[in-house]
Design brief:
With about 100 residues, the protein is mostly helical. The chain has helices at about 5-20, 30-45, 55-70, 75-95.
Length: about 100
Amino acid sequence: MVEQGVLTWFEQLLGRVPELIFPNRTNGRDSVWTELFTEMEVALEGVFPQSHAVLRRWKEARVLEAEGVKKDFTPDLEKPQNDLIAIFRTAHRLLH
């Protein structure tokens, strides 16, 4: 079982997602996105082994997100950002 503090941390991170998406979504180069995804990654690495599917999928999505930032093309950026959020939500559910 996972400590309540870890679950609370994951919930707080997920709670920050709507602030970034609504009312309008900024591109992934915005420092707030970088901060959130970095902290999410730290949280994931703190509870899942490197070989876990959650971390493997996370790292794949981070590569695609970085490519989207370089292209500065919204669909190439939004899809991996959405995937990162979905992966983190899945990880949160797995911890319950």
